[in-house]
UniProtKB/TrEMBL annotation:
Stated role: Catalyzes the stereoinversion of LL-2,6-diaminopimelate (L,L-DAP) to meso-diaminopimelate (meso-DAP), a precursor of L-lysine and an essential component of the bacterial peptidoglycan.
PROSITE patterns xrefs: DAP_EPIMERASE (PS01326)
InterPro entries, per the entry: DAP_epimerase_AS, DAP_epimerase_DapF
Site (Could be important to modulate the pK values of the two catalytic cysteine residues) residue list: H157, E206
Reaction catalysis annotation: (2S,6S)-2,6-diaminopimelate = meso-2,6-diaminopimelate
GO MF terms held by the record: diaminopimelate epimerase activity
Source species of the chain: Roseibium polysiphoniae
EC number: 5.1.1.7
Protein name: Diaminopimelate epimerase
Gene: dapF
Amino acid sequence: MNGLGNDFLVWDARDEPLRLDADVIAKLGDRETGIGFDQMITVERSPSGGDAFMRIHNCDGTQVDACGNATRCVGRLLIEESGKDFATIETNAGLLHAFGSKTPRTITVDMGKPRLEWDQIPLAEEFADTRAIELQIGPIDEPILHTPAAVSMGNPHGIFWVDDIEAYDLSKVGPLLEHHPVFPESANISLAHVFAPNEIRVKVWERGVGLTEACGTAACAVAVAAARDSKAGRSSTIHLPGGPLQIEWRESDDHVLMTGPTEVEFEGEIDLETLQWSKTGPGDEVSVAGATE
């Protein structure tokens, strides 16, 4: 599945538990020799009584707590399966609620409240104001990037406000910033540019993944950071390489709502001994090359 090109291998493990080693996940996630994906999602039974528990691994095998686009994709599957117009999804970051819409395949997820205090994000040192923390890369007197906003949406984000998101090679600076000591759990790194009222263009380096077509939690984090710094209102459109997401930071309860499309690319089977795979069913309207027919 994918949400705006942010793609996932989704397993249904509610009846039969599935645990794969990190090296197996990395092999499956390799876009040259495996299926290729940004994250692997394992849908399991929810210990807390939700419709499902969602376990998230990056393509390098590391486990993470949150993924907004994956939550929308899993939410769609659960909603279609149950016939209801909502689903409750348990994650390591807490319970999330997904809602259907009048637009086919479009799902809204309540991502909960953003975490804005330095020790909630977390950061390695105390900052009184996380709207602009002391961090720069490049020469001291002429830094390439500096003073990002920091937000957690269940995972840490550093957001750099720039005039042109294409003016920087995020493939080079992203890994350095992802692992900067100020982020003890590493971080997702975004370049963001407000180009019109409540319209923000964003490019994301996702921790454990790299450059990605879309990142739902990054879109939420950018929207929150923009509203906190009066760069945008509490409702904005985040334009990612894969397409736009609608983000609302609801004033009544501070919850962040994310709305966007989902897509089933295909269904298939994998032999876990050989890691050979094949398509067994079609997707929505997408033709995907690379499978063994």
